Automatic annotation (TrEMBL):
UniProt key word Magnesium: no
Biological classification of the source: Eukaryota, Metazoa, Spiralia, Lophotrochozoa, Annelida
Domain CHAT: 702-1014
TPR repeats: 168-201, 248-281, 368-401
Transmembrane feature ranges: none
Family annotation (PROSITE patterns): TPR, TPR_REGION
SMART domains tied to this protein: TPR
Keywords from the UniProt entry: TPR repeat
Protein name in the entry: CHAT domain-containing protein
Classification via SUPFAM superfamilies: TPR-like
Top-level lineage group: Eukaryota
């Protein structure tokens, strides 16, 4: 009979697996009848258990509870503790299905007690796992984690495949816990442990679950590529399992992810597979999910009819299933689609149904979305009062459920609605709150770049709307702060990431908190320069003039666009419409810039289809115009793909989108829908504060005059006065959007007036925060011993196939420029085949100056290099092989040449490099516009990447210039910088030189250059010499011979230069090293004055090449410094070496000696007070005593020193010159040549001594 009982149970199990559930119930009922007939209570308990399990599967939970309760009663009656333990577990499972978690918890606690009575580790571990799952469902995550950790501890004591699988599932549950509290990194660790175990046990079902969990967590973190890989693996495994439900679900998740990535075709394909499988297996709920996903994709693509079709299918299925949750979702999606189509009445009706069901089911998330949508629709209809009411209700619900993102969006919309009602104070409050929430979310998102990008557009709209509201209230200073906060978001994100990574001390010292007015004014005062700050906000150009120590002295606003786009920044499709509008319609500034270029004889930066008819007819046919526009757009698309692929932080994409939103073509109606009355009243209030320039008033003026009146004239009365070119002051322009393309150097009030570049040294910066960062960088990195001087790159050697495909013609003239710059800077150049991407990226991180004389493709936001050992078409570069462009010539891989990523340095490549450069020169005047016409995206992307990577200043040209003009400007520019000029001063001088020349006086030859960043000074060669001399003086007893050897080489070079010798001359490094011994610093000293040290190669020894000219009289200065040091006795050198670590002490001693040398009498008697702390500083007492200063009186704070009779003016000058050489700064270089006069009389004597001692050179 027992055998028959077992057979019935086995048949029931088989029927259950075959989904023949009714027949299975019959088998288990026969089991129960047989057990009763046999009066076998234990078998009766087994039958009750089987019946409970089958009814649970049938979701007949009440019956299942009844059977398991009877099972428990029987086991208790017969004292079957193990059976009792099992029954408690089964009852707990039913209560979990019914969401009766408290009852389930009680059952599992009983199960735990019985398992402990049995001392069964496996059963005890299972009970802990059940309790953990229950607590997790109750939201008691910390308790759940404790139970799962206890389960794992017990499972460690067990062995076997099942025990290992249980351990893996415990890891999975822990991953679920950490995922629920947002600790995704910890969650992924546990899921990966789960995956490892499933692979070792070959449990395919568990592998499918592990990849699903990993994919969802990576998606939550913004690691979309990793999520994509996981979901694809899950899909393959689901197919292997032949599990249609899992396969359908996998297709759905993969489709949603492709939708997020913008891969709409792949998304549609996956979701259609999900839909078909759901239909095949009769899964109506799955059909609805797939239809909903497809509707969302078509909505994003702007195919609203298809979106309506699929959302309607979702709604019909939800009604058929009487599933109110899905009905609620479908009504909301249909409402959004009708809103995008402009069917606001239909949208309103559908969103009201959405809200009605959400209230009925008390779905607070759905209520929040419905209230927000209804508020947005009423706002679009001009019913601001009703919009405010709905949005306030939505805000209340969002606050209850703590949905920060929804709260931020509703506050943004509520601010706009209150603005529409004329309640500017209320609008200000809500918009400030929205901005604070957006900034908080972005900080918490950390490295989740996709999430940050998803918030970017709406956050930008909040900043712009708030600027308009604040100006309307007359709060101009607050509007400036908001403008600054808005444009520095991407920079602050990058700053926070690099602070978290460590390694950059100056980054860690920067404050990443929101900027304030006090910070702005403090930064301006510290800069000692006037700042003209521009901001574009929904069709208006705002400008502020800020002066050091005076603050904000003037504000002005100008309308730069009066068109109505009618888009909504919260609506995806409207955003797409807006963006396409921005690209196809020239803004006011864009048109002025294009006309200004044409007036100078330079090709317009606008697309051919937007050029003036006269210009078009004289240059391009209509067909050529269309082809050129397609080519430029093609380059831009490739550039975006290349940069986005390697933009690890999202910084470049955010900067690009920031530019799009701040384009001057963006009008007020693209953000708001105001009635004429409200808008007119608001304009009247603004005009009472500041006059507004209308676009029509400038239309009849020449472009340059119109630009002057728009940008400079409103501030002219408050600009600092100038005193001619030599007395130029610095004017810093904080630019945005289209303003980067304005030739500010040429702007002037009338034909006879001086242009702006003659009145001021001009410099552009992206923000005050960037200026603050540059100030901090200059403060922390005054001298970087790791910097190797300059790197000069030019004339890359390109294969004919590359030249033909990308239209980058050879530029041999850059070779001459590179030679000239490298000679001036005393460095080697990378030209021709050596100018490869690999070589350049290896050389530039430690360079102080980086000079590119090559093609700059602004459309690609990239610098063209030589291919080197290029990849063939089989090479794969990231995901770039997925690019699908219509023209085969658009492929980034050439059929017979290198792939595009091999021959360009993109903005993303630059951003991923850490630079120490003070100056980066993009000598972009050689690039033909057809190879990548300049645009604001490219300028912002490439220059901002260099600044973010650590470069302090970038110089580039707005249009192509003649070769000779470029070389002349560069020579003048670098010569001025080598003489200690700041970058803006050097550029003004170079422009003036060309302006006064006969051949290149036309502005097109010199007015195109623009500096972006801080006003740097290249490391003074005096400072570099000082660093090298400090190294020498660390061993004062052995350094004298090294100084004599270097002096001989320097004097020899001066003689050759004086006699006009241009032939290269060198000596070996070994011959010098043999003379100087192990003293360090001589190599740096020679390099600082123009000697070129080359390593050994091709069986030639390491060599030192003599300089052939002496820019900035560096050799002369070095000679004077060495002679002064050699003129000091050894005790003085030893004392000087002790002072090396105290630069401030050196400056004070210099001041003392300078004063003494000017007042010492013929008898040598002179008294001077010295602070006690200075006298006690290391080396100071000994140094002064060796120069003849005797202590004669001691006071409380000061000592009195007297210059004794042995001291003389010449000895003091030697000491002073030595201090200048070691500690010298810019402000004391004026004394250099007066000191040289004193030491020159010893020059011949010292040289003769050196000649006698020198051998073998």
């Amino acid at each position: 009979m027992n055998a028959k009982f077992l057979a019935l149970g086995n048949i029931g199990d088989v029927l259950c697996k075959m989904a023949e559930n009714d027949e299975a119930v019959k088998m288990f009922n026969q089991q129960l009848t047989m057990a009763r007939q046999l009066k076998n209570r234990k078998l009766e308990a087994v039958a009750f258990s089987n019946l409970g399990i089958i009814h649970k599967k049938l979701k007949q939970y009440d019956k299942a509870l009844g059977y398991h309760n009877q099972e428990l009663t029987v086991c208790q009656e017969i004292n079957d503790i193990k059976g009792e333990c099992k029954a408690h577990g089964s009852l707990g499972n039913i209560h979990v299905c019914l969401c009766n978690y408290i009852s389930a918890s009680r059952c599992y606690e009983e199960q735990l007690d019985r398992s402990r009575d049995l001392r069964d580790v496996s059963l005890e571990a299972r009970a802990y796992g059940n309790l953990g799952i229950t607590k997790m469902n109750m939201g008691h995550t910390s308790d759940a984690i404790g139970y799962f950790e206890s389960q794992l501890a017990l499972l460690e004591q067990t062995s076997g495949r099942q025990a290992l699988l249980d351990r893996g599932r415990a890891y999975c549950n822990l991953g679920n816990c950490y995922e629920s509290i947002g600790d995704y990194e910890e969650s992924i660790k546990y899921y990966e442990k789960y995956l490892t175990i499933t692979q070792s046990t070959s449990s395919i079902t568990d592998q499918e679950a592990a990849y699903r969990y990993l994919g969802n967590t990576h998606r939550s973190m913004g690691n979309l590529q990793q999520a994509l890989v996981c979901f694809e693996k899950r899909l393959v495994i689901a197919h292997e399992l032949n599990n249609p439900e899992a396969t359908s679900s996998a297709y759905g998740e993969l489709g949603c992810l492709h939708s997020i990535l913008g891969n709409y075709e792949q998304a549609i394909s996956c979701l259609q597979h999900q839909l078909q499988i759901a239909k095949d297996i009769g899964d109506r709920l799955g059909e609805g999910e797939a239809a909903c996903g497809l509707g969302g994709v078509y909505q994003q693509m702007g195919e609203f009819d298809k979106a309506l079709e699929h959302h309607s299918i979702d709604l019909n299925i939800a009604k058929e299933l009487n599933n109110t949750t899905c009905q609620c979702r479908a009504y909301g999606n249909l409402g959004l689609t009708h809103e995008s189509l402009g069917n606001l009445d239909n949208a309103l009706r559908l969103q009201e149904k959405h809200l009605s069901i959400a209230i009925e089911t008390n779905d607070k998330t759905a209520k929040t979305l419905a209230y927000s949508s209804l508020g947005r629709i009423h706002h679009a209809q001009g019913d601001y009062q009703q919009a405010v009411q709905y949005l306030q209700q939505g805000l209340q619900v969002a606050d209850q459920i703590q949905h920060t993102e929804d709260e931020a969006k509703i506050r943004h919309r509520l601010g706009l609605a209150l603005w529409g009602l004329g309640d500017l104070e209320g609008a200000q409050t809500q918009l400030y709150a929205a901005i604070d929430l957006f900034e908080s979310m972005r900080r918490e998102a950390q490295f989740n770049k996709e999430y940050k990008l998803s918030l970017f557009d709406l956050q930008t709209a909040s900043y712009q709307a708030l600027q308009r509201v604040l100006v309307g209230l007359g709060h101009h200073d607050d509007a400036l702060v908001v403008a600054e906060r808005g444009r520095t978001r991407a920079f602050v994100d990058l700053l926070l990431e690099r602070q978290s990574l460590g390694g950059d001390t100056w980054y860690s010292s920067l404050d990443s908190s929101p900027v304030t007015k006090e910070i702005i004014l403090e930064t301006v005062t510290r800069q000692h320069a006037a700042i003209l700050y521009f901001s574009m906000a929904v069709g208006y150009l705002y400008s502020w003039l800020i002066l050091p120590d005076k603050g904000i002295v003037k504000f002005h606003e100008s309308a730069v666009n009066e068109s109505d786009i009618g888009s909504d920044p919260e609506d995806t499709q409207s955003l797409k419409s807006f963006r396409s509008f921005s690209m196809s319609t020239a803004s006011l500034l864009d048109n002025y810039v294009g006309q200004a270029r044409e007036s100078l004889g330079v090709e317009s930066h606008l697309s051919s289809s937007r050029l003036s008819l006269n210009h078009l007819s004289s240059h391009l046919s209509e067909t050529e115009s269309e082809a050129d526009d397609l080519w430029q757009q093609h380059l831009k698309e490739i550039g975006e793909k290349l940069n986005n692929e390697h933009d690890q932080t999202g910084f470049l994409r955010m900067e690009k989108r920031n530019h799009i939103w701040n384009a001057s073509s963006y009008s007020l109606s693209s953000l708001l829908s105001f009635s004429n009355g409200v808008f007119a009243n608001r304009n009247n209030s603004i005009r009472s504060i500041a006059s507004t320039i209308s676009a029509s008033s400038l239309a009849s003026k020449p472009a340059l005059s119109a630009l002057y009146e728009l940008l400079i004239k409103p501030m002219e009365c408050c600009l600092p006065p100038t005193a001619g070119h030599e007395g130029c002051k610095e004017l810093i322009l904080v630019l945005q959007g289209d303003l980067y393309l304005v030739p500010f150097a040429l702007l002037k009030p009338c034909q006879m007036a001086a242009p702006l570049c003659e009145r001021y040294n001009l410099l552009a910066v992206p923000s005050v925060r960037a200026l603050q960062a540059s100030q901090m960088l200059s403060k922390h990195i005054k001298y970087n011993p790791n910097c190797t001087g300059a790197v000069v790159i030019g004339n890359p050697k390109l294969q004919p196939s590359v030249v033909h495909q990308w239209q980058w013609s050879p530029i041999p003239a850059t070779e001459h420029e590179c030679r000239m710059v490298s000679e001036l800077m005393g460095c080697h150049s990378l030209t021709g085949a050596n100018a490869t991407k690999e070589n350049v990226l290896r050389e530039i991180p430690n360079a102080e100056l980086i000079h590119f004389a090559t093609h700059i493709s602004w459309k690609l936001a990239a610098i063209v290099m030589s291919p080197g050992n290029f990849s063939t078409t089989s090479a794969v570069h990231g995901n770039l092989e997925r690019m699908d462009l219509s023209d085969s010539s658009s492929d980034i891989v050439s059929l017979d040449g290198p792939s595009l990523p091999d021959i360009i340095i993109t903005a993303a490549d630059v951003l991923n490099t850490r630079l120490n450069a003070k100056l980066v020169v993009l000598s972009s005047g050689y690039s033909d516009d057809h190879a990548g016409r300049i645009n604001t995206d490219g300028v912002v992307g490439l220059t901002r990447a260099f600044l973010a990577a650590g470069a302090q200043c970038i110089l580039f040209s707005l249009w192509p210039v003649p070769d000779m003009a470029s070389r002349m400007l560069m020579k003048t520019f670098y010569t001025a910088m080598l003489q200690g000029a700041r970058a803006s001063q050097a550029l003004s001088s170079a422009m003036k030189t060309l302006q006064n020349s006969r051949q290149f006086s036309h502005p097109s030859n010199w007015a195109s250059w623009l500096l972006i960043g801080s006003d740097v000074i290249l490391s003074s060669k005096v400072a570099l010499m000082g660093h090298a001399l400090c190294e020498l003086l660390k061993t004062p007893d052995r350094s004298r011979e090294a100084m004599r050897v270097v002096l001989h080489l320097v004097e020899k070079s001066l003689q050759r230069i004086h006699h006009g010798h241009r032939k290269a001359m060198y000596t070996t490094q070994a011959s010098i090293a043999n003379r100087v011994g192990d003293v360090s610093g001589w190599r740096d000293l020679l390099t600082s004055v123009g000697f070129r040290l080359e390593p050994s190669m091709n069986d030639l020894p390491a060599a030192v090449f003599f300089p052939t000219f002496d820019p900035g009289d560096r050799l002369t200065q070095c000679s004077a410094s060495l002679q002064a040091l050699l003129g000091l006795p050894l005790p003085t050198l030893i004392a000087l070496s002790k002072m090396l670590e105290h630069g401030d002490v050196g400056e004070m001693v210099m001041s003392l000696i300078r004063d003494a040398s000017s007042k010492v009498g013929d008898d040598g008697s002179f008294q001077v007070p010295v602070n006690v702390r200075l006298w006690r500083a290391p080396g100071v007492h000994e140094f002064l005593a060796s120069l003849g200063f005797d202590l004669v009186e001691v006071g409380k704070d000061d000592l009195i020193l007297r210059v004794n009779k042995q001291a003389n003016r010449r000895t003091l000058q030697f000491g002073l010159q030595s201090l200048v050489a070691v500690f010298g700064e810019q402000n004391i270089e004026i004394h250099l040549f007066s000191i040289i006069i004193y030491v020159s009389i010893l020059s011949r004597v010292t040289q003769n001594i050196a000649e006698r001692r020198w051998q073998g050179m």
